[in-house]
Please model this.
Amino acid sequence: MKNKLSKSSDTELLKLLLEEKKLSAFDEIYDRYFDRLLRFGYQILNDQQLSEDIIQEIFVTLWTKKETLQITHLNAYLHQAVKFQVAKHFRKAVLTEEQLELAEHIFSQQNTDDLVIVNELNEEVHHLLEELPHRCKEVFHLSRFEHLSNQEIAKRLDISIRTVETHISHALKFLKENISVTSMLLFYFLFL
Model:
C-alpha cells in the first residue's frame, strides 16, 4: 500500500486523509513533507530542535483535526502552517539579530501571491494608521517606514525618547488589535 501511495498526488492523499481517515495517507504525507518543512523552518529559526518541534506540532494538528480541516492545496497549507507557527513562536520569544535577518530573508523571497498579500497588508496598515492621532502616526511612520532610531525621531520632532517609545508602543498595540487575522503573520515580520 505504501508504494502505491508514494505515487499518489497530494490531492489523492488529501482525499484519503480527510474523507477516508486513512493513516497510510497521513504516513505518506509525513514522509513526503517532513524533511522539506524542517529545512524551511530551520532556515528561519536556525534552531534544529525548535524546528522539529514546530513541524511535529503541525503534523499532530493535521491528524487530530482532520475532520474539520478544509485544505485544498496540501503544499501551500503545510508551508503556511510553518509560517504561522514560526510567527507564533516569534511573538513569544526574544529573537537574536541573526534570526530576524533570516526571517526577513525568507519572507522577502515572495511569489506573486505573496506580493498581493503584502500590498493588501500595506493598504490595511496605512488605513489603520490614519485612525491614530497625528503625532503617534508621525512617530510610527518615521520609525517603521523611514527607519529612524528613537533618538533621531525625538530630535527631529523635539520630543523625549520616552514619548517616542510611548507613541510606537501605542501604534503597535492599536495595529495588533485591529489588523485582520490573515494579515497578522505578515504584520509581525514587517513591523515588529
Notes: The chain has a mean pLDDT of 78. Residues 76 and 157 are 45 Å apart (CA to CA).
